[in-house]
Design a protein that fits this description.
The complex is a heterodimer of chains A (about 160) and B (about 260). Chain A has 7 helices and no strands. With about 160 residues, chain A is an all-alpha fold. Classes of the chains: A mainly alpha (about 160), B alpha+beta (about 260).
Amino acid sequence: MSYYVGITLLFFVALIEVSVLPLFRVYGLQPNLTLVLLIAWLIIRGEEEAYVLIPIGGVLLGLVESAPMGTAIIALAPVAVLQEIRGSKLGQGGVAMAIAFTGMMSVVYNFTYLLVFTLTGESGNWLVATTDVVLPVTLLNIVVLVPLYFVFSVVNPRYRRSLYA
Amino acid sequence: MSVMGGGILLLALSGIGLLRPVEDVSYTVLSPIESALRSIAQPVANVVTRYGDTRDLTSENESLRLENERLNAELARLREETTRREELERLLETKNALSNQEFIAASVISRDPGNLRQLVAINRGRNDGLKVDMPIVTEGQTLVGTIARVEDDHAWVKLVTDVDSAVSALLLESRAQGVVAGSYSREMAMEFVDQNAGVKEGDTVVTSGQGGTYPAGLVIGKVTGVEGSRQELFQRVTVEPLASLSKLETVLIMISFVPTQLTPP
């Protein structure tokens, strides 16, 4: 059941990224909502579901964005890789861990895009991109993550069960 | 690792065009949903961004802005035309470069969600005769960008503010030449402008036609700042686009203009 909810959510988030979020850009920037959603999902609900949702999110994002198909999957894959390294401790860190993880993954995610653009011959000054785009977007992603994390926590069955324990 | 491998495989398949049918079908299916979502969110965005302006004022402002944009473009084109005519009249009979152009209209159906590029998707593609590098203008005929990628039923347009965009330009008032380039901060700057060129705020920047990638006389924007000390070789001129690029809804594609691919001398 949760897979269906996750896939539906990712589908709408991908569409919202291209249709609604550009209308609410802050200094011309918008959060990487699919990335933030997947991180929140991974930390709150565990890696089993996230491992399935990460490639699906990448494909859905690839269908609606201008970058070559596959770029989003490569950019999202490190989320799973870091989870592998960190193991089950990731979910125990609470919101602080979620913020740190989002910060790290936002940088990796945007650098992956930058790498693909550089490899496909589209110009890119990494230093300027870092200061003008990557770091501000990282902050924006963290700002979006915090409320999303609490919403996910509240709707998570484990959390609700703990209230009655 | 398998996720990463899958991504690289898809990237390779996309690079050789094997995923084009999938992308085309997804756009056909998804673009109405995107449009519906955008039309739902647009009024909210208007309220948020304009701090409670009434809808009437917003639409009036929008129509006045379009009118102003059109008149500015017209004025710039007339000035450009006059100057050019004076220069060339003795040599050859000239015609207005833009009046002979053929346009087709397209709707903006999507925006690239990434923050590193400035691209929008339009609902016209290869089936409508679109080709890469064709110039795109607003209804007021100010420059929006060029076609970066064409699929069968849609195309991606690279905006003039994109970091990969560079347009040969000149200042209408001083005739100083330079290159208008985009940036990651979505601002445009006119580079390689001679230190002695008398540039001032409010000057109009138009395409020069140099290099053959754009027709001459298309309005790009207005000068908003000039930087550079006397020791420097060039001044750095900040340019604000005349077209409202964040609110594009309809654009015109200059289908009769064929960009020239210059070969080394």
